[in-house]
């Protein structure tokens, strides 16, 4: 048996994080900027959740997008803080809804209006390829589809890309892939 020695922590400066060791640039594999739902649980919200409650929860947890599911966990679409604005909630209220009756399903982007990357194509692509493909879409998130098994495999977030590329962008602003693309090519 090996005898281990304990050391004092008085000379310790920092706690390390994985980002300090992960170097991501435009040539890196696209999978380095992708949140894989096989490794990380998808952030979901039921379609019958009130829009106000969903927004409060998202702001409290610093989440900008959630997958919308039915009571049976069927994928219905996505909701982001872009759809949960005061203006959009009030527009629903003006259609003779009371504020508490405005639900996530009333404001979500339904799956038939969404586009996604194919996971197999993503595996063979670079970060630059992803940014170039999404430059014109004005999105903050893009889903990744595993077409062979017909399920959502993950998501790519503009704020995750900016953080991993260590871009000097205010992540509290509504970053789109276009603004990330411009900043990455200026760096």
CATH topology, by name, is CBS-domain
Identify low-pLDDT runs: none
Order of strands, widest sheet: 1-8-7-6
CATH superfamily: CBS-domain
Roughly how many Å is the radius of gyration? 20 Å
How many domains is the backbone divided into? 1
Identify the CATH architecture: Roll
**What oligomeric state best describes the polypeptide chains here?**
single chain
What is the terminal separation in angstroms? 52 Å
Features:
187 residues, alpha/beta, CBS-domain, 4-stranded mixed beta sheet, 7 helices, 8 strands, CBS domain-containing protein, CBS domain
Q: How is this structure best summarized?
A:
By secondary structure, the protein is α/β, with parallel strands linked by helices.
Tell me about this structure.
The structure is a single chain. The mean pLDDT is 86. The strands form two sheets. Strands 1-8-7-6 form a four-stranded mixed β-sheet. It has a four-stranded mixed β-sheet with strand order 2-3-4-5. The chain has one domain: CBS-domain (Roll). Helices cover 28% and strands 19% of the residues. The protein has 187 residues and is an alpha/beta fold. The chain has seven helices and eight strands; from the N terminus they run ββαββααββααββαα. The chain is globular.
Topology summary:
Elements: E1 34-36, E2 44-46, H1 51-60, E3 65-69, E4 75-80, H2 86-93, H3 104-107, E5 109-110, E6 116-118, H4 119-123, H5 127-134, E7 141-146, E8 151-157, H6 158-164, H7 177-186
Parallel strand pairs: 2-3, 6-7
Antiparallel strand pairs: 1-8, 3-4, 4-5, 7-8
Helix pairs in contact: 5-7
């Amino acid at each position: 048996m090996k005898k281990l020695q304990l050391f004092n922590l008085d000379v310790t400066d920092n706690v390390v994080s994985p980002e300090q060791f992960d170097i991501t640039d435009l040539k890196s594999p696209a999978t380095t900027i992708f949140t894989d739902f096989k490794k990380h649980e998808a952030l979901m919200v039921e379609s019958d959740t009130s829009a106000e409650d969903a927004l409060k929860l998202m702001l409290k947890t610093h989440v900008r997008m959630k997958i919308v599911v039915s009571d049976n966990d069927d994928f219905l679409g996505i909701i982001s803080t872009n759809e949960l604005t005061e203006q959009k909630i009030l527009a629903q209220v003006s259609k003779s809804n009371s504020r508490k009756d405005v639900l996530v399903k009333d404001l979500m982007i339904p799956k038939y209006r969404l586009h996604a990357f194919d996971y197999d194509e993503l595996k063979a692509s670079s970060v630059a390829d992803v940014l170039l493909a999404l430059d014109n879409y004005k999105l903050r998130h893009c889903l990744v589809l595993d077409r062979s098994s017909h399920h959502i495999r993950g998501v790519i977030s503009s704020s995750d890309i900016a953080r991993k590329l260590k871009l000097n962008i205010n992540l509290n602003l509504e970053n789109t892939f276009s603004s990330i693309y411009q900043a990455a090519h200026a760096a």
